[in-house]
Amino acid sequence: MHMYYDNHADLSVLANKTVAVIGYGSQGHAQAQNLRDSGVNVVIGLRPGKSWQQAEADGFEVLTVKEASARADVIQLLLPDEYQAKVYQEEVAPGLTAGNMLLFSHGFNVHFGQIVPPEDVDVAMVAPKSPGHLVRRVFKQGGGVPGLLAVHQDATGQAKQVALAYAKGLGCTKAGVFETTFREETETDLFGEQAVLCGGMTALVKAGFETLVEAGYSPEIAYFECLHELKLIVDLMYEGGLSRMRYSISDTAEFGDYMTGNRIVTDATKEEMRQVLREIQQGEFAKKWILENQAGRPSYNAIKQQEANHPIEEVGAKLRQMMSWMQK
Ligand SMILES: NC(=O)C1=CN([C@@H]2O[C@H](COP(=O)(O)OP(=O)(O)OC[C@H]3O[C@@H](n4cnc5c(N)ncnc54)[C@H](OP(=O)(O)O)[C@@H]3O)[C@@H](O)[C@H]2O)C=CC1
Ligand SMILES: CC[C@](O)(C(C)=O)C(=O)O
C-alpha cells in the first residue's frame, strides 16, 4: 500500500486515449472538467435530459451511454450507484473491448457483485475523497483533493499507471492518492458516510438544535451554534487537525470539549458504530439499499420529506439569504 503524488503519475499515458465520463452529476461534471483542463480527451455518456443539456452547454461532446462506451478506451461510471448495474449491462458492456479500462469512483457494485466485468478489461477505481463540487472548486484554485486508487483486475499490466494518470488529471495526486482495495474503499466509505460524515453529523446537529429550542432558546441562535459554526470549526480541523481547532477556540471551550465530548459520544455510541460496520461488512446494508430501490424507495422518500421539513432547514434558509457572499 502506497501514497502517490504528482511525480509518480504520467499524464502522457492518457495522451492517445479517449475517456468517457458516464454521468454528469456531482462527480461527473467535476471529473470531466478537471480532466479536460489537464489536456485529456473526454466525451460524456448520458441519456437525454437535464445533464445532457448542461454538459453540452459546458462545451463537451455528449453521446448516448452506448456510443460513448464503445468509443472510449477508459470508461468512468459516474451514475448513481443504484442504477449502475442496469446501465452497465444494457449499454456499457456491449461496447467493451479487450484492453479497455472500466473505472469507478466507489466500489459498491463491483464489491457486492452487481457488476462482473469480463476478464480481458482492466477494472480500477479512482475515488476522490470529496464531494464533486469541491473536486472542481479546489482544482480551479490550483490544488486537488486526496483520492483513493484500487486495481481490481489488471488485464493489460498497465492498469495502475492508467488509473494514476487519471487521478493526476483530476488533481488528486497534488494532495495524495492512497492505494487501497475495492473492499476497503467500499466498507470504509459506507461507514464514514453513515456513522460520521452524514448520518452521525446530521443527527448530532439536529439533536443539539432541538435541545436548545425545546429549552426555550431562539431557533436563530440554535442554528448559528449547532450548524453554522460547525463549518468554521471543521475548517480549523481540516487545516491543522484537532489541535489547531483547540488552539483557536477559547480555553473555556477547550475545557468544555474535554469534559463533555465523551458524555455525548459514549461507549454505547461506539458499540453501535461497530454494529453499523458489521452490517456493512456482511452486506446487510447493501441488500437493504438494493431492495429499497427495487420497491421504489418508500423509506428513502418518506424520510427525505420529513427531513426537509425540520425547523433547522426553515430557519437556516432564512438566515443564509442574508449571507450573500456564501457559495450556495
Ligand atoms: N457525490 C459525490 O461527491 C461522490 C460520489 N461518488 C460516487 O460517484 C458516482 C456518481 O455519484 P454522483 O456524482 O453523486 O451521482 P449524481 O446523482 O450526482 O449524478 C448522476 C448522473 O447520472 C446521470 N444518470 C442517472 N441515471 C442515468 C441513466 N440511466 N442513464 C444515463 N445517465 C444517467 C444523471 O443524469 P440525468 O440528469 O439525466 O438524471 C446525472 O448526470 C457514484 O458511484 C458515487 O458513489 C464518490 C465520491 C463522492
Ligand atoms: C461523504 C459522502 C461521500 O462518501 C463522499 C462525498 O465522499 C459520497 O458518497 O457522496
Ligand types: NADPH dihydro-nicotinamide-adenine-dinucleotide phosphate, ligand LWWEY6Y5
The main pleated sheet reads as:
9 strands, mixed
Placed side by side, the strands forming the largest sheet appear as 1-9-8-7-6-5-2-3-4
Order of helices and strands: EEHEHEHEHEHEHEHHEHHHHHHHH
**Based on DSSP secondary structure assignment, what is the total number of beta strands?**
9
Radius of gyration: 22 Å
Q: Helical stretch count?
A: 16
Given as residue ranges, the uncertain stretches (5+ residues, pLDDT < 50) are none
Give the quaternary arrangement of the chains: single chain
- Give the end-to-end Cα distance, rounded to a whole number of Å: 38 Å
Mean pLDDT: 97
Shape annotation = globular
In helices, the fraction of residues equals 55-70%
**Binned strand content:** 5-15%
Structural class: alpha/beta
Keywords: Amino-acid biosynthesis, Branched-chain amino acid biosynthesis, Magnesium, Metal-binding, NADP, Oxidoreductase
EC number: 1.1.1.86
Domain KARI N-terminal Rossmann: 1-180
Active site: 106
Tell me what the structure shows.
With 328 residues, this protein is an alpha/beta fold. The protein is 59% helix and 12% strand. It has a 9-stranded mixed sheet with strand order 1-9-8-7-6-5-2-3-4, sandwiched between helices. It starts with a strand and ends in a 7-residue tail after the last helix. 30% of the residues are buried. Residues 23-28, 46-47, 49-51, 65, 78-81, 83, 87, 105-106, 127, 131-132 line the site of NADPH dihydro-nicotinamide-adenine-dinucleotide phosphate. The site of NADPH dihydro-nicotinamide-adenine-dinucleotide phosphate (NDP) has 23 residues, from α1, α2 and α4.
